[in-house]
Specification:
The complex is a heterotetramer, with two copies of chain A (about 240 residues) and two copies of chain B (about 270 residues). Chain A is α/β, with parallel strands linked by helices and about 240 residues long. Chain A is built from eight helices and twelve strands. In chain A, strands 2-1-3-8-10-11-12 form a seven-stranded mixed sheet. With about 270 residues, chain B is α/β, with parallel strands linked by helices. Chain B is globular. The model of chain B has no long low-confidence stretch (mean pLDDT about 95). The chains are: A alpha/beta (about 240), B alpha/beta (about 270). Chains in contact: A-B, A-C, B-C, B-D, C-D. Chains B and C meet through helix 5, strand 7, strand 9 and helix 8 of B and strand 7, strand 9 and helix 8 of C.
Chain lengths: ~240, ~270, ~270, ~240
C-alpha cells in the first residue's frame, strides 16, 4: 500500500506543474488544485502568489469579485487551474451540462469565469480526478470555452496540461492534441487509453508519475491542510487529516 | 449623511420586491440575505428574473425550488463543497426556468455598464464558446481601434433590486461591506437596494476614514432591516461561519421534491401557516 | 501577502521613472507624491507624458515649469483656491507642451479599460464638444444596441508608471489608500506603481478586514519609499492639511520664469547643487 | 449700504434655485455654489444630499474620483453647479481657453467633468460672478460642452439657469435662449444688457433679485461657513466671516 493517498499524489503532481509560476489563481470548487497551489507556495518560500476564490485569508484581492478577472486581464496572473464536466481531445471544456441545452440531462454548475480566463491566462492546467469516457469525451456537448482559437480572436493563453486521477498530459495548441506525459502509479497505459474518449499522442512507454516527496507530504498534512481548511473545511478534515 | 435611515421590518423589506422583478444577489461567500430570502419564499413572490452576481448557491436553489424564479442569469449555481444545487439541476432538466448562462466577468462588466450609464461594455474572450452562441442579446463587433479584431459587447444589466446581507448598517443608512465590493457594483447598478444587517453601528460609518473605506453610502440604500444571523445558514463575514450540518441536510433533502417540501415547511412555511 | 516588501530610498524610487514615460498622477486632494516629484525634477527626468487622473495642480505645474513634460493629458490643471497654475498656463501659451485635453470621466473610463484588459470603453456625453474635435484618438460609433444613437469610444489608457503618496504601507508592500479609490484604478491600469508612504504600518494591512477594505494589495505595488511629509506642501489625509502659505508663495513666484527658478533653486535644486 | 455682502446675495440666489432638489453636486473651484448647496441643505432640514468635490466631510462618496460621474450617470443626482470661463447665448460653455487652441492666449484650467455632466444631470445651474462681455460672449472660443444637442445625441439634462454677479437668467433649450429673470439690487437692466455679449429675452421690466433672508444670513455666517471652510478655507475666512 502506498504511503500516501490518491489525493496527495494529485496534489503533488499539480504542485510540480506550478514550478516557476509567480501568481496562480484557483477557481471555485477546487480543493485539490487549491491545496496544490498552497503547497507550491510553501515550497517556493512564499515567493509565489496564490489567489484562492472564496478564501479571505488566501486572497490578496480587495476590489470585489471582478478583481480576479481584471487582474488576469492585466497580465498579472500566469497560471490557472480549471476543471471540466467534460473535456475533449482539442481541450474544449464543458462546465455547463451534457445531453442537450438548455434542458441538459445532466446539468453542471456553469461556466464560472472559464469563458474569459481560458483565453487570458498564459498557462491553464486542466484537472479532473475522474478519468472516464464520460468525462474525457470525443467532443464536448457544450463549449464553455474552446481549447484553441477561433482564428483571429484575441487570445494570450490557454491549456498547457491535463491531470486526471490516472495520468498527466501536456497539450499542444498548434496540433490541437494532448500528449500522455506519465501514468500514475498502479495504472496501466492500456487502462488510460480505454478510459479516454479521445485520441492522444503517446510515447512507446510512458513513465510512471512520481509520488509526493516527504517534504510535500509533511506540508500537505500540516500547515497547508490548515490553510486550505478555511475554504474547504470538509475536504481538509475528511481527506488531508492523517488521523481521518 | 442626510436623511433618516429607512429601517423597516423584514416582511416590509421583501414586500418591495415585486413579482417579475429583476433581482440581483451576491455569491455565497459575499453576504447573502438568507432570512430575507426565506421571507420572500413565504410571501410567494414569483416570476423573478434572478441575477447571480456572478454565481449563487443555496439562495438560488431555494428560490428556484419554491417556484419564485422564471429566468436565471448566472455564471454558475452550486452548493460548493456540498455538491450540485439539486432544485436548480432539476429545474434545468424539466425546463421550469429560462436560462441565461453567462460567465463571471461578463456579469461584473454588464453591471458596471449600468453603473457607468453606458449601454454596453466590451469584454475579451467568449468568442468561440457556446455561451456566446446562446446569448442572442450579446453582440460581436470589430474593434474600431484595431483591424480584424472581433470583440464581444455586453448590454448593460440593470436590476430592479439588489438584495444582500452586511455586517453593519448605521443610523444614516450607510452599510459597511468591507472588501466585498461586488456589493457596491450591484447597488450602483440596481434601481433599489434592500439590505439586511447583522448589527446597527453606533455612529456614522462615513465619519471614520477606516470604516468609510469599506462603506456603501446611504445614497444607494433604499431600505434596511436589522436581522441578526440574517445570512444563516451561510456565513456572515467575521460573525459566523456557514452551518455545514445544515447545508449537508439541505443537500440531502433537496434531492427530491418531497424532501425539499419538507425543508420548506420547516424553514419557510407559507405565511398563513407561520 | 508573499514577497519581501520592496522599500527603497526616494532617489531609487524615482529613478524607475524613465525619460519619456507615461506617468499617471492623482488629483491634489488624493495623495500626491510631492517629495518624489521634487526628486524627479532634481534628477531632470524629461519628455514625460503626464496623465492627471483626472486633474492636477502644483505637481503638474512644477513638472511643466521644470521642463519635465512633453505631453499633458488632463481634464484640468489649476492651483485651486490659489488661482491658475502659472507654468501650465505659460506652457500652453508658448506651445511648450502638447495638450490632450480631456474630461474627468473619460480619464477614469480610459484607465478602467486598461484595468479590464479591453481596448476601449464607451462614454456618454462629449459629442458636440470641442474636446472631442481635438481628440483624433477617440472614436464615435453607432450604439450597436440602439439605432441612430452615436456614442464615444475611448481607447484604453495604459500608463507606464503610477506615482502617488499614501498614509500607510506595510511590511509586505500593501498600501492603505482609504476611500481614495482612484489610486486603485491608477495602480491597476499602470504597468508599475511607485508609492511613497507617510508611515510604515506595523502588521499586515490585509489581516484586519477593516484595514483591508481600504488597502491596495502589494500585487500592484512595484516599489515603496518611506517619506514622512511626502505630500507636503499638499495635504496627506488626516496627517496634515495643505500648507496654504507655501502655496500662496508658489503661486506668486511661479507667475514669472525668474520667480519659478528661484522657487526651484530653493526646493528642488539640481542634484550637483544639492 | 446693504446688510449683506455681494457673495451672500449670490449664495442666497443659488440656494433658492435648489428648492426641491434632492441631490446636488458641486464641482471644483466653486466656493460660492458650494456654500449655496450647504445652505440649501441646512434649509431643507438636511434632507437634501450635497456632493462637494474635494471635500471629505461633505461628500458621501467612497468609490473614488469616478463615483460622482457614475452616480450622475445612474440618474441619482438632479442638480449641478457649473462655471465657465466663457458662456455664450446658446449656453455653450468654455472652460478651456480663449484666443485659439491649443495655444490659447488665455488658458483656463480645463473642462473638468462638464463635457459629460452637462448632458447627464437634469438641472445644471451656470454660475459666474463676473458679468462682462469678456465672459458672456456671442460665441465661445472652445466648446467644453454644448448647451443644447447635438440632435440625436443621448442627453438627459442641461442648463436651466445662469446666475452672475449682476442678474439671474433662465434658459429655454427649445429656443436656445436665455431669459432675464431678475436684476440684482443696485444694478440696472441697461447695465446688464451692456455687459452681456449675447442677446437674450427680457420682460419689459425685470424684478429686483430678493436678498438673503435673516435665517439664510445666520446660517451662512455660522454653521455653513464652518462646513465650507473644510474645502475652501481661504474663502470661509476672508469672505464669510462676519468679523473679517
Amino acid at each position: 500500500m502506498a504511503a500516501y493517498r490518491a489525493e496527495e499524489l494529485l496534489i503533488a503532481v499539480l504542485a510540480r506543474l506550478l514550478d516557476g509560476a509567480r501568481h496562480v489563481a484557483v477557481g471555485a470548487l477546487s480543493p485539490i488544485p487549491g491545496t496544490a497551489a498552497l503547497l507550491a507556495r510553501a515550497l517556493s518560500g512564499d515567493s509565489m502568489r496564490v489567489a484562492l476564490l472564496g478564501s479571505k485569508r488566501h486572497s490578496d484581492f480587495t476590489d470585489g469579485g471582478r478583481e480576479l478577472f481584471d487582474c488576469a486581464a492585466q497580465g498579472r496572473i500566469d497560471t490557472l487551474f480549471l476543471g471540466g464536466g467534460q473535456i475533449d481531445g482539442e481541450a474544449n471544456i464543458n462546465l455547463v451540462g451534457s445531453g442537450g441545452y438548455p434542458r441538459s440531462e445532466v446539468r453542471f454548475p456553469g461556466s464560472f469565469g472559464s469563458t474569459f480566463l481560458y483565453y487570458m491566462i498564459p498557462r491553464v492546467i486542466l484537472f479532473r480526478a475522474e478519468h472516464s469516457p464520460r468525462v474525457l469525451v470525443p467532443k464536448v456537448d457544450f463549449v464553455s470555452a474552446p481549447g484553441v482559437g477561433p482564428e483571429g480572436v484575441y487570445r494570450r493563453g490557454g491549456p498547457v496540461a491535463l491531470v486526471t486521477g490516472s495520468a498527466s498530459f501536456s497539450f499542444d495548441p498548434a496540433r490541437r492534441r494532448f500528449r500522455l506525459e506519465s501514468v500514475h502509479p498502479g495504472r496501466g497505459i492500456d487502462e488510460v487509453v480505454a478510459a479516454t474518449g479521445f485520441d492522444f499522442d503517446r510515447p512507446a512507454s510512458a513513465p510512471v508519475t512520481p509520488g509526493p516527496s516527504p517534504e510535500m507530504l509533511a506540508l500537505v498534512r500540516g500547515p497547508v491542510r490548515e490553510q486550505i481548511g478555511e475554504t474547504y473545511p470538509q475536504f481538509a478534515a475528511a481527506v488531508l487529516d492523517p488521523k481521518s | 449623511m442626510s436623511n433618516e435611515a429607512p429601517y423597516v421590518d423584514l416582511d416590509d423589506l421583501v414586500s418591495r420586491i415585486e413579482a417579475g422583478a429583476t433581482l440581483a444577489v451576491p455569491p455565497d461567500y459575499s453576504g447573502v440575505a438568507m432570512a430575507a430570502t426565506r421571507a420572500l419564499v413565504r410571501r410567494g413572490t414569483d416570476r423573478l428574473h434572478l441575477v447571480a452576481c456572478p454565481t449563487s448557491g443555496l439562495q438560488a436553489d431555494l428560490l428556484i425550488g419554491a417556484g419564485c424564479v422564471a429566468t436565471l442569469e448566472a455564471a454558475a449555481v452550486s452548493l460548493g463543497e456540498f455538491g450540485p444545487a439539486p432544485r436548480f439541476t432539476e429545474a434545468v432538466r424539466s425546463g421550469a426556468i429560462t436560462l441565461k448562462d453567462s460567465t463571471c466577468p461578463a456579469i461584473h462588466a454588464a453591471l458596471q455598464a449600468t453603473e457607468k450609464g453606458v449601454p454596453f461594455l466590451p469584454l475579451r474572450g467568449i468568442i468561440g464558446s457556446d455561451v456566446l452562441r446562446h446569448r442572442s442579446d450579446w453582440r460581436v463587433i470589430d474593434n474600431p481601434f484595431g483591424a480584424g479584431d472581433p470583440i464581444v459587447l455586453l448590454p448593460a444589466l440593470a436590476p430592479d433590486v439588489a438584495l444582500f446581507h452586511a455586517a453593519l448598517g448605521d443610523g444614516f443608512g450607510n452599510v459597511w461591506i468591507g472588501r466585498r465590493r461586488e456589493l457596491v457594483t450591484m447597488a450602483h447598478a440596481a434601481r433599489a437596494s434592500l439590505v439586511t444587517v447583522e448589527e446597527v453601528y453606533d455612529g456614522d460609518l462615513l465619519a471614520d476614514e477606516r470604516m468609510a473605506a469599506g462603506t456603501l453610502p446611504a445614497i444607494y440604500v433604499t431600505a434596511l432591516a436589522r436581522q441578526p444571523r440574517g445570512a444563516w445558514p451561510l456565513a456572515c463575514a467575521d460573525h459566523y461561519p456557514l452551518d455545514a450540518a445544515h447545508l449537508k441536510e439541505y443537500a440531502r433533502l433537496a434531492r427530491s421534491a418531497e424532501g425539499f417540501s419538507r425543508y420548506l415547511a420547516r424553514h419557510a412555511p407559507p405565511r398563513a401557516a407561520a
